[in-house]
Write a structure and sequence with these properties.
about 325 residues, alpha/beta, Rossmann fold, Alpha-Beta Plaits, 2 domains, 6-stranded mixed beta sheet
Length: about 325
């Protein structure tokens, strides 16, 4: 990455970062007939922050984001993006927000350089096509037809096109899905730059480790309702309070009675959260960890993960969503 590229603004350089929300939802309801996809949702998002909206399929994430983007009108409640109603002021907002296109939003024979030239014509103050290509690391496929790009290359192009107009609010849907490790590093760097330059970033993803790495704030939805909201630090701190626990994930389901016996605990101290996911309410002493691994070895069952003490966003999410997490 060149020095020029590093310094070039990819969000509105005039954006002032303060405590006033850039995106605001108040008591929002989105209904399809008698079904409420979003049920009384309220939250704020701020400049220079990344808000991750999480939840299983059917939780209301897509309906919420579509309403924020102006594509769906709520049945009840108020939405404001940069002070405007997105459904009524889409023309005003279109020059100030960036939305990642889903696969299929670009003509299959159009190359990345052609797509970037096209998109720059939509904005009065756009990033140059060459800078978009360089920013997203697509120089080697700049003239390749879209249909011949890999999934990760398509994702990076979609991200680059979303940033063409130097947006103040950016909506990112699964930005690292299908992207190789090197490409993920580049996308994380772009998101970090957006945050530093004052953009408000709304991220939806099923990749919880990625959300934990990128997000400042987290909103967890289930069945259209807000079931948990706060800063990443608050959520992880809350989940880790009194965390004298061991979390075990295995490749095959276990008999919890045998597991409890193996580690010398009562059955009430071993819980199966999901098949293959177990919460052991005990301190992860070296002796206990050895007992667990020895037990699994005798059962010929491999460990997917084994953690003690500090919990992760994924563990908090699974404890809240439970079996429904499989939907996502």
């Amino acid at each position: 990455m060149t020095e020029t590229e590093t310094q070039a603004p990819i969000s509105n350089p005039k954006r002032v970062i303060d405590n006033n929300p850039i995106v605001s939802c108040k008591d929002v309801v989105i209904a399809y007939g008698s079904t409420r996809a979003v049920d009384g949702l309220s939250f704020d998002a701020f400049a220079g922050r990344v808000l991750a909206i999480l939840g299983p399929n059917g939780a209301g994430k897509t309906s919420t984001v579509e309403a924020l983007e102006g594509y769906r009108i709520p049945s009840h409640g108020n939405i404001r993006v940069l002070g405007h109603d997105p459904a009524k002021n889409s023309k005003t907002l279109s020059a100030r927000i960036g939305v990642m296109l889903q696969e299929g939003g670009i003509h299959p024979m159009m190359s990345p350089i052609e797509a970037t030239h096209l998109f720059t014509k939509y904005y009065s103050d756009s990033i140059s096509p060459d800078d978009i290509i360089q920013l997203t690391g697509l120089e080697h496929v700049a003239k390749r037809p879209y249909k011949r790009l890999s999934g990760g290359e398509k994702q990076r192009l979609s991200l680059g096109l979303a940033l063409t107009g130097r947006p103040e609010v950016v909506f990112l849907d699964e930005p690292t899905a299908g992207v190789d490790p090197q490409g993920r590093l580049g996308i994380r760097e772009i998101i970090t730059r957006l945050r530093e330059q004052g953009a408000c970033i709304i991220l939806t993803t099923h990749e919880l480790p990625e959300a934990e790495r990128l997000a400042d704030e987290v909103l967890i939805l289930n069945k259209g309702k807000n079931i948990m909201q706060g800063s990443m630090h608050e959520l992880l701190s809350l989940g880790s309070k009194g965390a004298n626990t061991i979390r075990l994930r295995t490749t095959l389901p276990l008999d919890t009675t045998l597991l409890a016996q193996a580690v010398g605990l009562d059955l009430s101290e071993v819980a199966e959260e999901l098949p293959g996911n177990y919460l052991i309410k005990a301190t992860g002493t070296p002796e206990r960890i050895v007992a667990i691994t020895t037990f699994l070895a005798t059962m010929n069952i491999a460990i997917d993960s084994l953690t003690s003490g500090m919990v992760s966003l994924e563990e908090i999410y699974l404890s809240l969503i439970g079996g429904e997490a499989n939907d996502g």
